[in-house]
Task: structure prediction
Amino acid sequence: MANLAQLYKTRIKGTGSYLPDKLLTNKDLEKMMDTSDEWITERTGIKARHIAADDQATSDLGVIAAQRALENANVDVSEIDMILFATVTPDYLMPNTACMLQQKLGAPNCVAMDLSAACSGLIYALSIADQFIKTGNKKNILVVGAEVLTRFIDYEDRTTCILFGDGASAVVVGPSEEGQDSDIYSHHLYAEGQLGDLLILHGGGSKHPPRQHTVDQKLHYVDMNGRDIFKNAVRTMGRCAIEAIEHNKMTPDQIDWMVPHQANIRIIEATAKQAKFPMEKVIVEIEDVGNTSAATVGIALDRAIQKGKIQRGQNVLLAAFGGGLTSGSLLMRY
Ligand code: ACO
Result:
């Protein structure tokens, strides 16, 4: 990470999350295809995932998470000066989902942009927010990670449909005030575009615009090479976690919590093992959520804060991996 002239320390002022009401359980999936609760639970740690209502788009999930985060941060919508919206399932290709959220929140004066980095999206966005806060350029940045991925899942493909769910998370970021010792210490971000084919949504963009044949060929569904994704997830998340710890001249016992991307319990366990990090200090919120891509790290962070696990003054390590392939870690004093 480049060294910036640091004027301010960055503080997570508040977090929020939202999951739609409708649940799709492993038992429901058993009735739809040749699979079993036992197989899914053993392979992924997932028992259920949430599905957005027909009239809910990604910004509709994001707005509820954002309102909760603003309330927890004690920040009024009028004070937001930037919205960063991480998603790979935007409401529209244009305008961006951040602008949709701005309109729904009624935030009068802000910059609003989307960030596409799949499951690493929230960490990418928090890293960008950190730069604007540290330099004093912005005071209240709303970072959102939200997805309605189930609209792009083929429920005849049992290797992908068991994994993904819908959800949203939000984080309000601002400068630490006098007497507060919160700060984002470091972020390490990576991309390996040469491995992009391992997890790809072929249709809907300029390469394969939506046409009858793209629908017939199922190009609008997530296409994943599960085994290779698994291996690369452990390799990259493990590397980013270790790098964050070493960069800050810390040891795992000085970190209170790790909040990893919630893709699969086996990936989380293997990452923790690689970073020599005990599972007791790893936040796992996957069983009733599934993989919500850009939303997972924020949902897990928010739930751990609301449960009183993560507390002010503790050192927290975020790590993620996603399509792209992207990956990243962020180490902070919460
Ligand atoms: N139910 C029952 N059997 C299944 C299912 C299912 N849902 N899915 C696959 N199988 C079968 C396969 O057909 C195969 O059968 P065969 O041996 O007769 O051919 C067998 O199970 C093993 O298949 P694999 O694909 O090798 O299974 P694997 O152990 O690799 O588990 C899984 C599959 C769970 C998808 C695993 O590869 C995985 O978790 N990968 C990571 C996926 C992931 O997390 N992606 C998202 C990360 S990035 C992001 O979040 C955007």
